[in-house]
Write a structure and sequence with these properties.
By secondary structure, the protein is α/β, with parallel strands linked by helices. The chain has one domain (4-273): Rossmann fold. It has 7 helices and 12 strands. The chain has helices at 70-77, 88-105, 113-123, 145-152, 168-181, 213-223, 263-273, and strands at 4-5, 13-18, 24-29, 45-46, 82-86, 126-130, 156-159, 190-194, 227-229, 244-245, 248-249, 255-256. A 7-stranded mixed sheet has the order 2-3-6-5-7-8-9, sandwiched between helices. The protein has a 3-stranded mixed sheet with strand order 1-4-12, with no helix packed on it. The chain is globular, with a radius of gyration of 18 Å.
Length: 274
């Protein structure tokens, strides 16, 4: 089987609106008119043309059980839904969660019609907003986290940044800034910080500043006064990303099928505990 990179953005439904700064916000949701799967996007690679993840990854943990239940996941996120805000690694993660819910709707895993209809409505409430740095920043290609949250007012928000940040002090300032911003939504929204994905192809590989990732995680854990989705378990999984992307040593973006299939279960376990 040949796995190829998917350079285009995730599929499903995209919609836009004008925010307070008169800029256009593009938001990806997990459902399209024909019920199609989301392309994994974000420079991910896929072993199928539709970018769907069908591989089952089983993780064992000493302190908790990791499982996945699409129906209960949808009940937990409720009418407000869940918003993922971050860079391309967050888009890949969001697309995998969207597809796990859509798989439920497509009767690939469940045969209950009532549950499937529920999951189709749920998929509309799973959204992604592109923000490389989460704040107003010269290198930002998307929009600040605050704008997405203010527009959608979701029940849950998963955020992360790091690969596009080059200085530890700058990262610390961003985390501090974001922790102040989320106070404005304390009555409506629960925020979750996602740790850095493992990265790198060799000791000489410096693309995406992956050597700073452990330090980024330590800073975030010390500054973030809230829930943390820890994906550091991936650091112990070999061959989880492709190092050669058209001659470019990538070492950051994951492939599906692969370890990303464990993300919905890790997220579901955390949400179930809140």
């Amino acid at each position: 089987m040949t796995c190829t990179f998917v350079p285009r953005k995730g599929g499903g439904g995209w919609h836009a609106h004008k925010n307070s700064r008169n800029n256009v916000l593009s938001v990806q949701s997990g459902w399209s008119a024909n019920g199609s799967f989301n392309q994994v996007g974000g420079h991910a690679c896929a072993c199928r043309d539709d970018g769907v993840s069908f591989h089952n990854i089983t993780l064992t943990a000493k302190t908790c059980d990791i499982g996945w239940d699409a129906v209960n996941f949808c009940r937990i996120i409720g009418d407000g839904g869940i918003l993922f805000v971050g860079d391309s690694t967050m888009q890949i993660m969001a697309s995998v969660v969207m597809n796990h819910v859509i798989l439920h709707y497509q009767h690939r895993k469940y045969g209950n019609v009532e549950n499937s209809v529920h999951a189709s409505n749920c998929a509309k409430r799973i959204r992604f907003g592109h923000s490389d740095t989460l704040v107003l920043h010269p290198a930002e290609r998307g929009a600040p986290m605050y704008d997405y949250v203010e527009y959608l007012l979701p029940r849950f928000v998963v955020v992360s940044t790091g690969p596009h940040i080059q200085i530890l002090d700058e990262f610390e300032n961003i985390v501090t800034n974001v922790t102040e911003q989320i106070k404005y939504f304390r009555n409506t929204t629960t925020f979750i910080w996602r740790t850095q994905f493992a990265a790198g192809c060799s000791d000489n590989h410096i693309l995406y500043n992956w050597k700073l990732f452990d330090a980024f995680d330590e800073i975030a854990k010390s500054r973030w006064n809230g829930n943390i989705l820890n994906v550091s378990v991936f650091k112990h999984v070999k061959h989880m990303h492709v190092c050669d992307r058209g001659g470019l040593q990538d070492g950051m973006h994951y492939c599906v099928p692969g370890p990303l299939d464990a993300i919905p279960g890790l997220l579901y376990t955390l949400l179930s505990s809140l």
